[in-house]
Design brief:
There is one protein chain. The protein has eight helices and 14 strands. By secondary structure, it is an alpha/beta fold. It folds into three domains: 46 residues; 64 residues, membrane protein fhac (Ubiquitin-like (UB roll)), CATH 3.10.20.310; 125 residues, Rossmann fold (3-Layer(aba) Sandwich). The strands form three sheets. Strands 6-5-4-7-8-9-10-11-12 form a nine-stranded mixed β-sheet, with no helix packed on it. The protein has a three-stranded mixed β-sheet with strand order 1-3-2. Strands 13-14 form a two-stranded antiparallel sheet. The chain starts with a helix and ends with a strand.
Length: 322
């Protein structure tokens, strides 16, 4: 049996060893302190400058490489686009047919110039919207529809302006459409079927005049000319050259009254020059002036009187007796 003192000594040794192992060492702390106190080999400002230089070099390299990469990609894209545009032509999708509807007053040459396309051009290179804008800039065209029709056609539908009158302004004659817009100056000999209007501001009143004449068609279809007087009322010239002077207000009622009188009394078939409807309670007629008698040649022999003897005329030769 071991002695009590021996057991106590061994226990104390084990406890001392355990405390020694658990106690922290100062070596790491001293090493860390030494590192903090040691001076850096490269100064901080040099490190920052090196870092900035590296960033600039990296950016420059990226830009240089990106520029050459973009040139390559752009060139490849251009070649691919050209191939795509040429493909329809190689596949037979080129313009072979141009169909135009609604063309009456616009010339064929004007339509083709506005389309700016030729037979054999690639169909997909044709821009319908740009062509439509060019067509609608033509003076006679009010609206246009332009379409590509596969595999090889272009379809055009025109809505032309409807000329309803010929406006005389001085020596010029200008076509007027149904909205009173001036289309262009023309030779009146080619548009004799249109009614003639005159007077300052007459084109702006053409719609109102058309409605007025449509309200009394028995008179309206006989109108050949109309003058806008003082920018307030109309004077109408009928097909028999009778002038009808309309009032400033309620011209439709005045025309209806004239139509009723003509139906009952054949008023417009009389030998009259003017029908004045400007007064609301009466109608004034101005007859045509009497025809002048034919001029009398004082040198002509009187009827039944013989020619003077001794003179005859034969084939323009005059001879005398004796």
């Amino acid at each position: 049996m071991p002695a009590v003192n021996d057991i106590d000594v061994r226990a104390r040794k084990r406890a001392a060893a355990a405390r020694k192992m658990a106690a922290p060492t100062d070596a790491p702390r001293r090493a860390s302190t030494a590192r903090r106190t040691q001076k850096p080999l490269v100064p901080p400002i040099a490190r920052k400058a090196a870092l900035a230089f590296g960033i600039i070099a990296l950016a420059a390299g990226a830009g240089f490489g990106g520029y050459h990469s973009w040139r390559y990609v752009s060139g490849a894209f251009t070649e691919m686009r050209g191939a795509l545009l040429d493909w329809p032509q190689m596949a037979g999708m080129s313009v072979q047919d141009i169909s135009v509807e609604g063309r009456s007053l616009v010339s064929k040459e004007a339509v083709l110039a506005a389309l700016d396309i030729r037979r054999g051009d690639p169909l997909l290179q044709f821009d319908p919207q740009a062509a439509r804008a060019r067509l609608e800039s033509i003076e006679w065209v009010e609206a246009a529809i332009v379409e590509r029709r596969l595999p090889d056609g272009i379809y055009v539908k025109l809505t032309e302006r409807n000329a309803v009158a010929l406006w005389q302004r001085g020596r010029d004659f200008i076509l007027i459409d149904q909205q009173g817009r001036q289309v262009r100056t023309v030779d009146p000999n080619y548009y004799g079927y249109l009614p003639l209007i005159a007077g300052t501001g007459a084109p702006e009143q053409i719609t109102a005049l058309s409605l007025l004449l449509a309200e009394v068609p028995v008179i309206g279809r006989r109108v050949r000319a109309a003058v806008w007087v003082g920018q307030r009322r109309w004077n109408l010239t009928l097909d028999n050259m009778v002038e009808v002077q309309l009032p400033e207000e309620d011209a439709a009622s005045a025309l209806k009254k004239l139509a009723e009188l003509d139906a009952k009394q054949q008023l417009l078939s009389r030998d009259i020059k003017t029908v004045d409807l400007r007064l609301p309670d009466r109608l004034v007629l101005q007859p045509n002036p009497p025809a002048e008698p034919p001029a009398i040649d004082k040198n002509a022999p009187a009827a039944g009187k013989p020619k003077p003897p001794g003179r005859t005329s034969t084939s323009g030769v005059t001879s005398g007796q004796g």
